[in-house]
Amino acid sequence: MEPIIFKRLGMAAVVLAMTACSSLNVVQKEENSSVPESFIESTDTLNSAKIQWRDYFNDPYLVSLIDSALVHNQELNITLQEIEIARNEVMARKGEFLPFLNGGAASGVEKPGRYTSKGANDATTDIKPGVETPDPLPDFMLGVNSTWEVDIWRKLRNSRDAAFRRFMGTVEGKNFLVTQLVAEIASDYYELLALDNQLAIIQRNIAIQSDALEIVRLQKTAARVTELAVKRFEAQLFNTKSLQYEIRQRIIETENHLNFLVGRFPQRIQRTQEEFVKIPVDSVYYGVPSQLLQNRPDIRMAELELQACKLDIKVARAQFYPSLRITAGLGFQAFNPAFLLQAPESMLYNLAGDVVGPLINRKALKAAYFNANAKQIQAVYNYEKAILNAFIEVSNQVNKVNNLQSSFELQSQQVDRLTESITISNNLFKSARADYMEVLLTQRDALESKFELIDTKRDQLKAKVNVYKALGGGWN
After folding, report:
1. pLDDT of residue 339
2. What residue ranges do the domains of the chain occupy?
3. Which CATH number is 101-150+323-356 given?
4. How far apart, in whole angstroms, are the C-alpha atoms of residue 284 and residue 40?
5. What is the model's pTM?
């Protein structure tokens, strides 16, 4: 008898399914993941993104900061909990296509009215000869029941698979955050080194300008210059001294931002004492653009979201199909606990199957299906946008590295010449062959050129960091 019932249920499901998805033809957009063959003329497949950040950044103080941040950074720890939430969502979806089994016990009492059909029957019915039905009638029950939706259209499994891909997407999101965090700490660290060197340059210039001021004062005493020259030298010295406090404030703010990224209260950041302009900018290997698809966590996250959206469409389509549900129960029921476990008199069971499918007024289901299609198209554009953004980021940083290298070489020569010109201008001024304005302008130009050289070196190191981030390095 049971095979006949399930056979008829299956036939009914097929009939309903044939009419369920009429007028649901929606065009789905396919993604385009093609990229140019190279960033520059070279097609070398060596890629710096494959290098672990501990090897890419060889400054022990910087490595220590990153190590601490990967443990204590609050944003990263928040993201780790999002991964746990997504993992639990997968667990929930996995449980939906397994049978549900519930157990329970119940007790109660019932007193029907005497002049009701049930009350009249109970009054004239004996349990057995000589034993009347209790009045009121107790009721005790102990049993289990099970429900199971048969996943014949893969609706539940597709929902589980979509949740799993979103879980993997949160893992890639964590990797992307690690990449961003490593790059931000390294950039701030190099900013701090640059500020230290600018402060040192200011202090050296204060000493130089103080010596020049003493010379001018002596020359005024000797009536070789006027009070105007003394005032101009004093004004320049005051201006240079004021610059150091601006730099000190920026150092404090940069240190505090680093401390925030590391997840600790403000304290002094230990850093290298190596001369800043001599820090080497090692060669960076860009690889080929197609490697971005594997190396960039944000691209992989967008790809996983796209896969999840495609599964969401299948889930939404399956909502139009009939659902097959099987229910079963087994237990014991009696009016007296002494009879509760007596079989077969107190035993009860049931087994049923039903097929239910939407026939009319399916607007809510259609809206969900159309939304799933729209989100899939949106996910395609997000995926293509992630690829395009990654390629442009790498292209920008590749050219920036090359241009900054050329600029740094020329600025180094400029600093050398202006540093020499300070000595020359001072000697000429002492011998009355140059006026004080030439000395002032030379000192100012030399200071500005040294600042620009430090800025360029900082930009070089940051470009090295940004290339590493753009290539997808730092998370592995």
Report:
1. 82
2. 2-23+31-97+151-322+357-471, 101-150+323-356
3. 2.20.200.10
4. 13
5. 0.84
